[in-house]
C-alpha cells in the first residue's frame, strides 16, 4: 500500500508551514541513510517542481512541516512558486540515499488541492505548541523548541548579513531588487552628497532635501514609501507589518511579488544593502 499522507487542518488546501503526517506499511528495516523525500509540484499538469526537501528518518511514520526553513536541504524554484489561484500536489518517497544510487521503498501523493500562501499559519503553530492534556508529545516539544529557536530576539537581528544592491563605494542608482525570499529590511548609506545640499540641524546629519527614497512594492502597486534625510537609514519590513509574524512563520508566510527600489537625489550617491537572515 502506498504512503498515507494526512495534512493537518486545514486539510482541503496546502499552505506554507502546514504540518504533514505520513505513514508507510513498508516491511523491513530502514538504513541509516533513509528518509522521506518531499516534493511539491504545480503547473497545468502538476509537473513543475516548486520545493523539495529530504527529512532523514528510520521510522515508518512521522510529521514534517511544509517549507521547513528550520531544516537544511530546502530547494526552491521561485520562478514557478504557486499563487492563491494555483493548485498543487505533494509527493512523498520513503527512500535510502546510498552512494551512487537511490532505493525507493514506498511512495504516495496527495490529491490535487488549491494552494494558499498564508492560510493556517497561526493555527499550525499554536496547534503544535499546546496540548489539552497539559503535557507535550515528543513532536509537539520539538515544534515548540523550533519556534523558540527561530525567534528574532534569540537569533535573527544579531546575525543579519548585508547583501549589496549597489556597487562597492556606492552609485547614483536607481537600485532595484525582487524580494523572492524572506529578508529583514534595507540599509541605505549615503557616500556622496551634492555640495549644494546642506544639513539643517544641530547634529549636521539631517538634510531638508530628500537624499534618497525607498519604495516597497507588491506587484505593480506601491506599498510603502520611505524618504531618506540622513547619512544612513535602516528600514525594517517588520516595522511596517510586511511580514506575517515574528517566528518561523516569517519564512513560510513571506508575501509573493514583493520588490524594492531605491532612487537617489541627483548629484548624490549611496551604498544600498538588503538585510538578510542567516
SSE layout and pairings?
Elements: E1 4-7, E2 19-23, E3 34-42, E4 48-56, E5 61-65, E6 75-76, E7 87-98, E8 101-109, E9 113-114, H1 121-128, H2 138-149, H3 152-156, E10 161-164, E11 175-178, E12 183-192, E13 212-218, E14 221-228, E15 232-236, H4 249-252, E16 258-264, E17 269-276
Antiparallel strand pairs: 1-2, 2-5, 3-4, 3-7, 4-6, 7-8, 7-9, 10-17, 11-16, 12-15, 12-17, 13-14, 13-16
> Runs with pLDDT <50, length 5+?
123-136, 146-156, 241-252
Query: What's the main sheet like?
Result: 6 strands, antiparallel
Strand content bin: 35-45%
Q: Give the radius of gyration.
A: 23 Å
Which structural class fits the helix and strand makeup?
Answer: mainly beta
Write down the CATH topology of the largest domain: Jelly Rolls
CATH class of the largest domain: Mainly Beta
How helix-rich are the residues, as a percent range?
Answer: 10-25%
Order of helices and strands: EEEEEEEEEHHHEEEEEEHEE
Q: Estimate the mean pLDDT confidence.
A: 77
Q: Give the CA-CA distance, first to last residue.
A: 41 Å
How many domains is the backbone divided into?
A: 2
Count of beta strands? 17
Note the total helix count.
4
Name of the CATH architecture of the largest domain: Sandwich
Give the overall form: elongated
Explain how this protein is built.
This protein has 278 residues and is mainly beta. It has 2 domains: 4-120, Immunoglobulin-like; 159-276, Jelly Rolls (Sandwich). The protein is 10% helix and 40% strand. The protein is built from 4 helices and 17 strands. The protein has helices at 121-128, 138-149, 152-156, 249-252; strands at 4-7, 19-23, 34-42, 48-56, 61-65, 75-76, 87-98, 101-109, 113-114, 161-164, 175-178, 183-192, 212-218, 221-228, 232-236, 258-264, 269-276. It is elongated.
Amino acid at each position: 500500500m502506498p504512503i498515507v499522507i494526512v495534512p493537518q487542518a486545514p486539510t482541503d488546501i496546502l499552505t506554507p508551514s502546514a504540518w504533514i503526517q505520513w505513514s508507510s506499511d513498508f516491511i523491513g528495516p530502514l538504513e541509516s541513510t533513509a528518509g522521506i523525500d518531499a516534493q511539491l509540484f504545480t503547473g497545468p499538469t502538476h509537473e513543475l517542481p516548486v520545493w523539495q526537501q529530504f527529512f532523514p528518518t528510520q521510522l515508518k511514520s512521522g510529521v514534517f512541516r511544509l517549507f521547513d526553513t528550520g531544516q537544511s536541504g530546502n530547494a526552491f524554484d521561485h520562478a514557478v512558486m504557486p499563487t492563491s489561484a494555483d493548485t498543487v500536489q505533494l509527493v512523498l518517497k520513503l527512500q535510502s540515499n546510498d552512494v551512487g544510487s537511490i532505493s525507493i521503498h514506498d511512495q504516495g501523493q496527495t490529491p490535487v488541492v488549491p494552494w494558499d500562501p498564508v492560510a493556517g499559519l497561526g493555527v499550525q503553530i499554536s496547534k503544535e505548541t499546546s496540548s489539552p492534556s497539559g503535557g507535550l508529545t515528543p513532536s509537539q516539544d520539538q515544534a515548540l523548541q523550533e519556534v523558540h529557536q527561530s525567534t528574532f530576539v534569540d537569533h535573527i537581528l544579531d546575525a543579519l548579513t548585508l547583501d549589496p544592491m549597489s556597487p562597492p563605494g556606492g552609485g547614483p542608482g536607481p537600485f532595484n531588487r525582487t524580494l523572492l525570499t524572506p529578508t529583514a529590511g534595507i540599509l541605505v548609506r549615503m557616500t556622496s552628497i551634492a555640495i549644494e545640499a546642506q544639513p539643517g540641524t544641530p547634529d549636521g546629519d539631517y538634510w531638508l532635501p530628500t537624499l534618497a527614497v525607498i519604495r516597497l512594492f507588491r506587484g505593480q502597486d506601491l506599498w510603502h514609501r520611505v524618504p531618506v534625510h540622513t547619512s544612513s537609514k535602516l528600514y525594517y519590513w517588520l516595522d511596517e507589518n510586511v511580514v506575517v509574524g515574528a517566528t518561523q512563520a516569517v519564512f513560510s508566510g513571506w508575501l509573493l511579488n514583493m520588490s524594492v527600489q531605491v532612487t537617489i537625489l541627483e548629484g548624490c550617491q549611496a551604498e544600498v544593502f538588503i538585510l538578510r537572515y542567516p
